[in-house]
Q: What sequence folds into this?
């Protein structure tokens, strides 16, 4: 009896420590980021971060303003979301409500395959195929633009949005639809007036998680956005995202320099944004889950 | 049975720990080892531009001489020279010559830097093959890259905007170009910072009004995709096209020699290594990593 209780306790400790490892790691990452970034506040001063030019290597004066990087990430993310949401949501509606079982079995593995393509491969495709295409279509000087990056990112966000939206749509109670049909609504009317509104919080959460994926994506944007640190909201300009900046510069930066610490601040900004997006998604999702 | 397993794994852990301790100890002691003929270790510190080249040499050298350990670190030419003066490195890799001030310091410390030129680095400026421009002066290049000129018509070309391509700021080429062509001024904000030389070539071959710079080795391989333009030292002088010959005889402006420095004439395994770098095999690696061989 006693040994059984002891075993139970041991098992509980093992299980709870396994599940809390993730929390511990997140906390450690936060701590590490701050530890590396803090000295920046004192020595060139935190106000340097709010400048509008990012010029970390210079013989004149180094500047570490993250505004162009923020607007770059913001622009690419918004554009990607605008492109990905219609495809994602309509795709999810089709798969869960309209398609036959046979079609569904054919479509779903392909969508999952799309989610599994390494981003560097997507980036290479973007550089060689999409960028010249964008340049030709819009008559631009160069195909390395925010729009090119956004289209690639949309491609990566669509599978996330489809899978999660589809779950949300599937969990709308059958009785809702039956009631709609009973009052004479057509299938299309039922989908847009009943099913989608009923699962809107799940779809919102899906979009948020898709955005989280987009803003954190690095390799593809590094390859196709041109990486000029310009503060702009035009989709046809080159932008430099936060992730691309860290990836491109961290490798060669002198350890412990101002530049090094500034990169950690960029990392902190990025972490806070993705953390926020995830929190919103969680909140929305739990509300929708609670109604079940 | 179960108990035995526990014991076994405990023993394994202890063994692993012991191995780690030994590794740590040997790592600490490594630097002190005296170089014997055919065995020992060499430390090389210095230029970030040369890190890739020097580590390729070190790798091949260690493959051929299993007894010799070569460790390579970057940090910049200045850091490397400082390490040589402090006696903390056997060889210093530098993409510039030792400054008079550093020479003075060396004298005071009783250190006698000896220079070995092991490779040359030339940077080719390239445009789209259909661009009518075929030569630019250093002054014009500077104005294009700092953003003073934004249209090809300002350099006697067609009325088209210039698309400026540069390497990422982490690249040694970026800094060299900035120091040498931009005369230490800042690049224009509009410059597209490309993650790799291949992306510059890709973009310059696609975008009709682009201008970019790449290492000479890369430019020579991509002449079917891009047009390498001649560079004039001043507005009046002749345009010189980058090639192994013009880099070697120093008529081409955007070039520099890459050096290894030792304290006093190299001897023992240090000399072996430097001879390897200058050997045909070593110079083949120079070419492969995008630099110009010295012989």
A:
């Amino acid at each position: 009896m006693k040994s059984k209780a002891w075993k139970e306790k041991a098992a509980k400790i093992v299980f709870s420590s396994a599940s809390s490892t993730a929390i511990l790691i997140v906390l450690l990452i936060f701590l590490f980021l701050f530890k590396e970034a803090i000295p920046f506040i004192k020595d060139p001063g935190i106000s340097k971060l709010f400048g509008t030019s990012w010029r970390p290597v210079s013989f004149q004066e180094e500047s570490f303003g993250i505004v162009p990087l923020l607007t770059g990430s913001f622009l690419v993310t918004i554009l990607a979301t605008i492109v990905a949401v219609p495809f994602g949501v309509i795709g999810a509606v089709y798969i869960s409500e309209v398609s036959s079982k046979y079609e569904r079995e054919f479509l779903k593995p392909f969508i999952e395959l799309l989610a599994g393509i390494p981003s560097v491969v997507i980036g290479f495709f973007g550089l060689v195929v999409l960028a010249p295409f964008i340049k030709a279509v819009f008559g631009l000087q160069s195909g390395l633009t925010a729009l090119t990056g956004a289209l690639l990112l949309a491609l990566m966000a669509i599978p996330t949005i489809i899978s999660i939206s589809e779950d949300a749509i599937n969990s709308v109670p059958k009785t809702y639809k039956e009631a709609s049909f009973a009052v004479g609504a057509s299938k299309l009317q039922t989908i847009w007036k009943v099913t989608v509104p009923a699962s809107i919080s799940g779809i919102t959460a899906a979009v948020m998680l898709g955005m989280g994926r987009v803003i954190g994506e690095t390799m593809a944007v590094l390859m196709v956005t041109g990486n000029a640190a310009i503060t702009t909201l035009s989709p046809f300009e080159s932008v430099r995202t936060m992730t691309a900046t860290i990836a491109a510069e961290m490798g060669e930066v002198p350890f412990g320099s101002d530049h090094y610490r500034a990169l950690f601040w960029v990392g902190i900004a990025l972490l806070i944004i993705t953390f926020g997006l995830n929190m919103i998604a969680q909140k929305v999702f739990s509300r929708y889950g609670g109604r079940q | 049975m179960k108990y035995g397993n526990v014991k076994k794994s405990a023993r394994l852990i202890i063994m692993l720990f012991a191995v780690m301790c030994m590794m740590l100890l040997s790592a600490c002691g490594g630097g002190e080892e005296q170089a014997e003929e055919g065995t020992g270790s060499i430390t090389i510190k210095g230029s970030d531009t040369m890190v890739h080249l020097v580590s390729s040499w070190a790798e091949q050298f260690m493959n051929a001489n299993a007894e010799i350990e070569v460790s390579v670190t970057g940090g910049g030419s200045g850091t490397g020279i400082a390490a040589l003066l402090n006696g903390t490195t056997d060889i210093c890799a530098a993409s510039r010559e030792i400054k008079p001030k550093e020479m003075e310091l060396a004298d005071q410390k009783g250190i006698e830097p000896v220079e070995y030129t092991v490779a040359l680095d030339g940077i080719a400026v390239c445009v789209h093959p259909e661009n009518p421009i075929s030569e630019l002066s250093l002054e014009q290049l500077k104005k294009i890259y700092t953003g003073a000129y934004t249209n090809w018509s300002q350099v006697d070309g067609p009325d088209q905007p210039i698309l400026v391509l540069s390497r990422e700021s982490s690249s040694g080429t970026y800094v060299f170009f900035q120091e040498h062509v931009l005369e230490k001024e800042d690049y224009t904000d509009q410059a597209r910072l490309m993650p790799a030389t291949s992306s510059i070539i890709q973009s310059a071959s696609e975008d009709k009004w682009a201008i970019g710079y790449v290492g000479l080795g890369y430019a020579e391989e991509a002449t079917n995709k891009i047009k390498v333009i001649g560079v004039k030292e001043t507005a009046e002088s002749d345009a010189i096209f980058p090639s192994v010959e013009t880099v070697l005889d120093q008529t081409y402006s955007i070039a520099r020699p890459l050096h290894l420095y030792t304290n006093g004439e190299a001897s023992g395994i240090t000399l072996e290594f430097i001879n390897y770098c200058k050997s045909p095999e070593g110079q083949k690696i120079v070419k492969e990593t995008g630099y110009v061989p010295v012989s």
Notes: Residues 27-36 of chain B have pLDDT under 50 and may be disordered. The interface with chain A takes residues 48, 74-76, 161, 163, 168-171, 174-175, 178-179, 184-187, 189-195, 199, 202-203, 206-207, 209-210 of chain B (CB under 8 Å).
